Structures are given as structure tokens and as C-alpha cells.
Amino acid sequence: MSIDAFATPLDLAALAYFLLAIGIYRLVAGARWLESRSLIGAVQAQRVRWMLNMAKRDNRMLDAILLGSLGQGNAFFASTSAIAVGGLAATMGSGEKVQAMLGRLPYVAPATPFIWETKQLLILAILVYAFFKFAWAFRLSHYGSIMIGAMPAADPAHGEECANHAERTARLIGLAGEHSNSGIRSFYHAIAAMAWFFHPLLFMLATTWVILILARRDFFSRSLRLIAGTGKP
Fold first, then answer.
1. pTM flag (> 0.85)
2. % of residues, the chain, pLDDT over 90
3. Which residue blocks in the chain are alpha helix, DSSP H?
């Protein structure tokens, strides 16, 4: 049986390009020598500064409130991912109607049932991945709050202990930020994957567009310059 009975070479090429693009970008963006120059690295440096300043204060209520608000954002995105997964799962097995509707549009490439289900499963897998990332980030935020509560008293006798505890707390909150950032990237990837419903070439174009957006945000954005304090905003 020929491969066209299941998937066209263009569909396979588009899927391979998508997986390679997001995989390579993740490896490159997560490299140690680039992390210090990225938005993630700049924010982490500010987290360390925040925790070190907090260690010198007697009243840390405001810090706990700020961290709690950040955790609520992760909870919101986790709930959104779960709702999207449920909605997409409900459409499994009833793609003929949607496929017939898209078939009336110009330039929409026809798809075999195998490819159509693959498209749905790809987006479903991306959203499930995002849910786990946001849920774990939310849990890590709770652990960060516990670390803030366990911070030693702000006095000269505990100065070194406070500094060490503050740096570990900053690293823990940074882990929550990394998982949250991975979840947000997954939303971008899901948007690119939606283009596959129309045409494999559009899928590859959307993938390239999303990677460029992520690269600009992570390494060339005005927010990076403002947070890092380098150059003009």
C-alpha cells in the first residue's frame, strides 16, 4: 500500500519540519551560554535580586502576595488548557463535518482520515503538554511561598543563611517560571499547528512565523532591554 493512502509526502515533511523547528529552538534557547542573554535569564537575575532584598526585610507579606498572584496566573492557564483539551477531545470522531466545511474554502488541501486525525491528535498532545507544564508551575509557586515563609529572620546573625536561602528560593521560583514559559510556548505551537488544517505549506509558514516571534521575544525584545537594563528601550 502506498504512503499516499495514509499521508502525502508534503504532510509528512510539514510535520517533520514542525517537530524539528520547535525541538531545535528549545535546545538553542535553553543553552547555558545563551540563557544569560535571554529574557528568561534577565528575569531570573531580577528574581535573585528580589529574594535577596526580601531577606533583608522583616515584613515579607507583600512578597508572598506577589508570588501568590503569579501562581494564580499559572492556575488560570492550566484551567484553560484543560478546557481546550476537553473541547478538542469532544470533536474526535466527528471531523467529517469540519473537514467538509473546510473543503469549501479555496486553497484548502484535501486530507485523508489518517492525516485529519493526526492533526487533531497533534494539537491535543500540545495542549496536554501545556496543561502539565502550567500545573507543575502552579505547584512550584506553592513551594516558593513555603520557602518565603521559611526564610530566617532578618538580622546580622543570620545574614549568610538568609542569603543562601534567598538564592535557593529564587532558583525554585525560576523553575516555576521556566515551566510556565514552556506552557505559553505550547500555545504558540498550537496556533501554528492549526494552520495544518488548511494546507501543509501554510503549516510550515506558520511554524516559521511562530519561531521568529519567540526568538524576537526571548532575545531581541524591548522588554528584555528594560529588564536587563542594557541599552535604550
1. yes
2. 51
3. 9-29, 32-35, 39-55, 61-91, 95-103, 113-149, 159-194, 200-219, 222-228
